Amino acid sequence: MSLKEQSVSPFDKKIIVTGGNGFLGSNVVSELKGAGYTDIFVPRSADYDLKDPSQVQKLLNDQPANQVIHLAAKAGGIGANRTWPGEYFYDNALMGIHIIEECRKANIEKLVMIGTICSYPKFTPVPFKEEDLWDGYPEETNAPYGLAKKMQLVQAQAYRDQYGMNIIYLMPANLYGPGDNFKTESSHVIPALIRKFSEAVNENADTVEIWGSGTATREFLYVDDAARGIVLATDNYDDKEPINLGSGNEISIIDLANMISELVGFTGEITLNTDMPDGQPKRSLDVTKAAQLFGFQAKTDLRVGLENTIAYWKNKASAARSNEPG
């Protein structure tokens, strides 16, 4: 049963947003409030360990809800995936398994699961269509993470078939925007490059090294757009098939690096460390279904989104420097 068919207004329903204090989650919570939702609960990891089924059960008992949006995840860039592949598989797999099972037991009306485009096969034809998801093994550096998230789709569809659960599964492109993770050891490519080029400018460095050949391509989705897509799907999509969320625009890593270096004012040389991995050779999504099924289209131009993200980082870095003992 879709939300529109229910007698109770969706805005009168209580929603739990796991990971709601994080980068994507905080934007989803803001989007939900802007859409009219008033009863939103965001669990803290210190209070509920989602890897423990008893803790998930406790969460759903403490905070009876109609809907759950599961955003909590352990994620990072290529370096982090190479360093902690076991943790990325174990933590994400367990959280997904227990969220789905305990929501079944608690009779949650609707569960929104967030997957990843890392689940696609390494050599998926561009643009990636949802039907291509099972046509091969993911790119090796992030396969443990991608497969852990992919198993959530298997479980979601199995539980829909056996128990009639309304579980939807969304696969966002690489996210970026203000509030992103800029930690050197775990950041994704955009915050990593913004930090590298910004620090090079501050240090008057002549060169900045980037990983790989520079030829790999990625599609990026501004976090505000991703949050809007998730809320649109929560309100308007109720089917079993996974759905891509993206901008529909592809850019090479070297072109991205050149754009970021220009925006931060770096005028030195960009060097390529080809001993380091590229990750998946190409990533670009077919976003037709999201537009057709729940009216989602990304609005934020990449350059504008990068300008906003760079401004956020500069403010954050400036505040950190001003708090240093002098």
List the helices and strands and how they pair.
Elements: E1 14-18, H1 23-35, E2 39-41, H2 53-62, E3 67-70, H3 78-83, H4 85-105, E4 110-114, H5 143-163, E5 167-172, E6 174-176, H6 189-202, E7 207-211, E8 217-218, E9 220-222, H7 223-236, E10 243-245, E11 251-252, H8 253-264, E12 269-273, H9 288-294, H10 302-322
Parallel strand pairs: 1-2, 1-3, 3-4, 4-5, 5-10, 6-9, 7-12
Antiparallel strand pairs: 8-11
Describe this structure as you would to a colleague:
By secondary structure, the protein is α/β, with parallel strands linked by helices. The chain has a domain at 3-178 and 220-248 and 283-300: Rossmann fold. The chain is 43% helix and 14% strand. The chain has helices spanning 23-35, 53-62, 78-83, 85-105, 143-163, 189-202, 223-236, 253-264, 288-294, 302-322, and strands at 14-18, 39-41, 67-70, 110-114, 167-172, 174-176, 207-211, 217-218, 220-222, 243-245, 251-252, 269-273. The strands form four sheets. A six-stranded parallel beta sheet has the order 2-1-3-4-5-10, sandwiched between helices. A two-stranded parallel ribbon has the order 6-9. A two-stranded parallel ribbon has the order 7-12. Helix 5 links the parallel strand 4 and strand 5 (167-172). Helix 2 (53-62) crosses helix 4 (85-105), helix 6 (189-202) crosses helix 8 (253-264) and helix 6 (189-202) packs across helix 10. The chain is globular, with a radius of gyration of 20 Å. Residues 1-8 have low confidence and may be disordered.
